[in-house]
Amino acid sequence: SKKLREEVAFTIEALIRFNKNVFVGQVLMGPTIQALVSMASTSSLKVLCSLIRSIKSPLVDEIESNHEIPNIISFLSSEDLAIQVVGFDCVLEIGYFGRKEAIEAMIR
Fold it and tell me: Which domain of life, per UniProt (predicted)?
């Protein structure tokens, strides 16, 4: 269920905050990013923003290589204002921590 997936996302966020060095690899190598984006809820996007803030450029590089940036940008046109706001927060985080390629992907 969606609620269970959101709780798992919060658990992943807590694990990264607890010990980033141990758990970052699991986030970068696994389907976490795609799962968070595909859930398209305010909770999942908040977790994604938090992970971007914690992991920084490596996570932004992974988001860009998985072609998830257009999906994240599409949240800006959501009918749900909360999703628009959190989506905008994610876009700003990507812009702040991303390399040139990630910024160019957002502009396209």
Answer: Eukaryota
Question: What is the C-alpha end-to-end distance of the chain, expressed in Å?
Answer: 34
CA–CA distances in Å: residue 95 to residues 49, 60, 101: 12, 9, 10
Burial of residue 28 (number of CB atoms within 10 Å: 0-12, 13-18, 19+): middle
Q: Following DSSP, what letter does each residue of 24-44 receive, concatenated?
A: HHHHHHSSHHHHHHHH--HHH
**What pLDDT digit, counting tens, does each position of 35-88 carry?**
999 999 999 999 999 999 999 999 999 999 999 999 999 999 999 999 999 999
